[in-house]
Amino acid sequence: MARYKNHVADGHQGHGRTRRLLTRHAGWLLACLSAVLLLAGADNARAKERRHFLAYHASWYETPAATAEATTLAGIPGFMDIVALAFARPDAVYAGDLDISRTGLQYPYPGPLLRDAIRLLKKRNPGTRVVISVGGKNWHRFDEHALARLVRDLGADGIDLDFEPEDPACTTLPAGKIVCGSYALWTDYIERIRAVLPRPFLLTVPVWSVGAYGEGAFAEDQPRSPWTGSMLGVLRSSAARHIDIVSIMGYDAGPRYDPERAFAAYRSVWSGPLLLGIASQPVDPSSPVPTAKDVARLMATARRDAKGGAMLYALRVCSPETGCQHGTDYRALARDMCLAMRLDGCDRQVP
């Protein structure tokens, strides 16, 4: 009996030690799991907070190449996380087989090589997405089906809808509200593109410099132009739910234009990612060429916004090789924008 009691006591002590051991191990495992979840949460937060840098790639200035590795497109650094291929036509003719000759894109190499360059760019920079920028004339022959085929066949990630009507037909009503005849066209093109390219395909929209002026606190902002308020109705419409990113063409509006004020105006009507654009070569010679100090100030405005980002128009435009009488070397401008936005990888060479 005594031996039995001792055996039982020893057994209880053994179970006690086991419970204490399991408790310690459980605590250790819980601590490890908590640490993993915290790190995962931090990674997710960083992913959500990533600042977008959209850069247009001028196809007409691309250099001829025989391999994907030799293209400048494939060498774009990762801090430019959205690359817009400029420009496909709204009435692009594309039946398939990667024949891009009638799409409007002016790359000096065939479609299969363009597809391979996009693949290589995305392999080198897994976070980079490529969109096809649609711009130019003949919007009345807009062919969303041809554009969607082109996006899919090239392995691109969506469309940049660069619709710039020659006359937005805007009127200010007596109550101070702006209405534009171009609103219906905008919403039609947005709805049609999203119907053929549902998410996760991207739909990015570059918007006119003064397109959010003309009402409320921004009613008197200058300069006044036919495009004043031309995006207000679009961004307030139900079609706006289909847009992923808005980028402000913060240039070519003359010396009185204030891009920082325009950013505030657009933010008042658009809550999503909003990019402030800078041009390496403004078309309007009266528009000031941004200095390094200007870039730092403008990008600081975007950086202070939780969803602010940068847009550059355009890579390959304005350089010693291509020539530029009124502008800034796009490579230096890209680096300055990256540094001002405090992005990673700003030391990467822009080809």
From TrEMBL:
Keywords: Membrane, Transmembrane, Transmembrane helix. InterPro entries: GH. The lineage of its organism: Bacteria, Pseudomonadati, Pseudomonadota, Alphaproteobacteria, Hyphomicrobiales. This is GH18 domain-containing protein. The chain crosses the membrane at residues 21-42. It comes from Pseudochelatococcus lubricantis.
